[in-house]
Amino acid sequence: MESLERLAGLLRRHATVEGLQRTAIPGVSVVRSGALTMPMPVVYEPTLCLIAQGRKQVMLGTTAYVYHPAKYLIASVDLPVTGSVIEASEEAPYLSLVLDLDMAELSDLALRHPLADEADAAPSSGIVLNDTTPALLDAAVRLVGLLDTPDDIEALSPLVVREILYRLLTCPGNGLVRQMAKANSRLNQIARAIAWLREHYNEPFRIDDLADIAGMGRSTFHAHFKAVTSMSPLEFRTQLRLQEARRLMVAEAMDAAGAGYRVGYESPSQFSRDYARMFGMPPAKDAGRLRGSAETAAR
Predict the structure, then answer these.
(1) Residue-wise pLDDT tens digits, 130-154
(2) Which of 56, 94, 159, 240 has a beta carbon 3.0–4.6 Å from 201's, enabling a disulfide?
(3) Angle between helices 233-251 and 283-298 (to 10 degrees)
């Protein structure tokens, strides 16, 4: 409890703006929210999310993951999710530490510290929740505490980050992290296909081509892809397309037809149907609402 209070105090001091804020420590961000937030789509890259105060819900497909100070979240591959802060107030804001997971460091640690009963199991969901341990929390406090002594960051932050990765690898129930660390694991085979989809989401593709990229047979690939992402490859691509279309309309003021075409839709009506299904309203109306909210917040 003392370590959790110390982490919350550090985050309260260094998370000076609403939302995600990069820090001087490479790969480390802090998050603050003084209010509940609407569900917002985002792509989670391989990440540790450790909450010091508040509560958040992430939807991957139709599966909800709720995490809080007693449970941290690991995202193992690039995943399009919808996230919302579900417990926060100005007096007790949502406070979180986000650490990008370094695959090279994880792999080196897994080689140096193998588990006796380690096996390459079939991948489960690409997101896992696990218990926050005192050792992990203590390391997180020391990592964020380096923001108070910036001259120490270059020398000490790699050591503390490596300790955190070691804690993740050796925590009971973290088989997913072990799979992330193994280059030839089923999870990393799926990750190769996901990386290709993220780069080519606006192009047509065949499932057989994705299976070849992953080095799997078609049926095996489809089963493992859905286990990791909770979606089929086509559903995954649709989410990527719609998230990018929304960004284009809000950030670059592109019209709905142009945004749909840019992300790979040939039919404006199909784009509108898919968009309304995901975001709850037609594209132009949703984009106008979001632009209006941003302008109001800026005043």
Answers:
(1) 999 999 999 999 999 999 999 999 9
(2) 240
(3) 50
